[in-house]
Design brief:
The longest helix is centred in the N-terminal third of the chain and has 22 residues. This protein has 2 domains: 32 residues; 154 residues, 3-Layer(aba) Sandwich (Protein Transport Mog1p, Chain A), CATH 3.40.1000.10. Strand 3 and strand 4 form a beta hairpin. It has 200 residues and is α+β, with helices and mostly antiparallel strands.
Length: 200
């Protein structure tokens, strides 16, 4: 070996050619890693650009992630009891701003063609400004979603995003409830939950 190499028709030192080749290989590895989806999420495996960590959550019939900064209060019976609604609560996540995401199964399965009416019945509980029900896909399973406002007897007006989907013989109801002022930031956390959702 004479200590030189020809690179694109130019003679360069062999060490420089090896460094360029190694750099190109590392760049290809980085690009392929960035372009590939994360198949599974485990505790401390998912990091946002700010360095915040999402944690895994495993529920009955599904798994997902707990958004960074949110707390899992599913085992806190007092917190679960304070969340209005019917059915069995499977997950309760609380935001630093007091908003919450809860997942529950409906007391009785709702037929697919009645999911929109089921959501819209929230108007009977005082919900206003209901949006039109639109389709949503949660890990390959179709459902419907609406948004609406709730004016509790005390406190500030809340804004909700509520979706239902049938899976495994159950109707899953996934709800974000938060103050109108924090809806935009909390709906981003809900999207992280939906992005990480896997049926089991």
């Amino acid at each position: 070996m004479d200590g030189s190499a020809i690179l694109d028709g130019v003679t360069v030192p062999a060490a420089f050619a090896r460094a360029l080749t190694a750099c190109a290989g590392a760049s290809a590895l980085l690009l392929s890693a960035c372009g590939s989806p994360i198949a599974t999420v485990t505790p401390s495996s998912s990091t946002s650009p700010s360095g915040a960590v999402s944690r895994a959550f495993t529920g009955t019939g599904f798994s997902t992630v707990i958004p960074s900064g949110w707390e899992d209060e599913t085992s806190n019976q007092s917190a679960v009891a304070s969340v209005s609604g019917s059915g069995t609560v499977l997950m309760l996540l609380i935001a630093p701003d007091g908003g919450h995401i809860d997942v529950r199964t409906a007391p009785q399965p709702v037929p697919d063609d009645q999911l929109a009416q089921y959501l819209e019945s929230v108007s009977q509980s005082g919900a206003t400004d209901l949006s039109t029900a639109v389709p949503i896909d949660i890990d390959g399973v179709s459902g419907v979603v609406i948004t609406y406002n709730l004016a509790p007897s005390t406190g500030v007006v809340a804004k909700d995003e509520d979706m239902v989907v049938n899976q495994g013989g159950n109707t899953y109801d996934i709800v974000l409830n938060t103050a109108s002022a924090t809806f935009t930031q909390d709906v981003a956390a809900l999207q992280a939950v939906l992005d990480g959702w896997k049926w089991s």
